[in-house]
Design a protein that fits this description.
This protein is α/β, with parallel strands linked by helices. The protein has helices at residues 9-26, 70-80, 99-107, 121-129, 146-156, 168-176, 196-205, 221-228, 239-242, 248-260; strands at 49-54, 57-58, 62-63, 84-88, 112-115, 134-138, 160-165, 181-185, 211-215, 234-237. Helix 2 crosses helix 3, helix 2 (70-80) packs parallel to helix 10 (248-260) and helix 8 (221-228) packs parallel to helix 10. The longest helix has 18 residues, at 9-26.
């Protein structure tokens, strides 16, 4: 778990989350819509699946494009070939909202991933109520015993847990917790430094019954093609799309690269 006294951005976000949770536990929530299955397993010879992200701001990049509304952007991602829409719901640091999950869900046929800094089951309840089909769980944010507890709690609510890791030790914890989707972040959450080679090594080392997902650092077709040649089942593209007022051309080119570099059955 991140050191509570650390002055980094992650520690500040987690402190804010702890202050928000009591109010969230008491909040009246809407009735949840039906779940859409999240299937990211990648048979040999098939394209890499792409998760396309909606976030209005980030600690590293600042404000991002707002030319399109959340629903308009989700619809554009679906047209361009994304498999999942990822939605940042943190309000204080990312200008997000749980309501953005609903907007994305109504605007496209794609499943929706709630991307937040989950510490408590009340956040899972809110994600489910506002339309999420999957939820991000970040190992770096949690005590070890909370990882399997939240994986199970997410599944009890019908949510597919995507467990994010940065180190081999975190990946082992995610596997032991029974995660079927493991996202390897190329960005260290404490330093914000990028290390795509570390991410590639970790994806190679995941068990074959786990779907590995490359997180962070993908901006161009060559980046996606590199990941598509690996055993990863999917990759998330975020800030590159969010810098574009019209993300469709870029996302179409990324989806084309995800297919053109797919390994065949003999390479998998």
């Amino acid at each position: 778990m991140a050191d509570a006294g650390r002055a980094g951005w992650l520690a500040r976000i987690l402190d804010q989350k702890r202050r928000e949770i009591p109010e969230l536990r008491e909040a009246a929530l809407p009735s949840p819509p039906p779940i859409r299955p999240v299937e990211l397993r990648r048979p040999p010879g098939t394209p890499l699946h792409l998760l396309a992200e909606i976030k209005l701001r980030s600690p590293s990049a600042g404000a991002l494009s707002r030319r399109l509304g959340v629903g308009e952007r989700a619809a554009a991602y679906a047209r361009a070939g994304a498999r999942v829409v990822s939605v940042l719901t943190d309000r204080r640091f990312f200008d997000g909202s749980y309501a953005h999950l609903t907007e994305a869900k109504h605007a496209s046929p794609l499943p929706v991933l709630c991307k937040d800094f989950v510490l408590d089951e009340s956040q899972l309840d809110a994600a489910r109520a506002y339309g999420a089909d999957a939820v991000l769980l970040i190992v770096r944010c949690l005590p070890a015993e909370r990882v399997p507890a939240l994986v199970n709690a997410a599944r009890e609510r019908g949510l597919e847990p995507l467990v994010e890791v940065v180190t081999e030790a975190e990946a082992e914890l995610a596997v032991d917790a029974g995660a079927g989707l493991i996202g390897v972040n190329a960005r260290d959450l404490d330093t914000l430094e990028m290390d795509p080679r570390r991410a590639e090594r970790m994806l190679e080392g995941l068990p074959r019954d786990v779907v590995g997902i490359h997180l962070s650092g993908l901006a161009a077709p060559d980046d996606v093609a590199r990941v598509a040649r690996s055993p990863a089942g999917a990759a998330l593209v975020g800030e590159a799309l969010m810098r574009a007022d019209d993300p469709e051309p870029l996302l179409r080119s990324l989806c084309a690269a995800a297919g053109s570099a797919a390994p065949d059955a003999g390479e998998a």
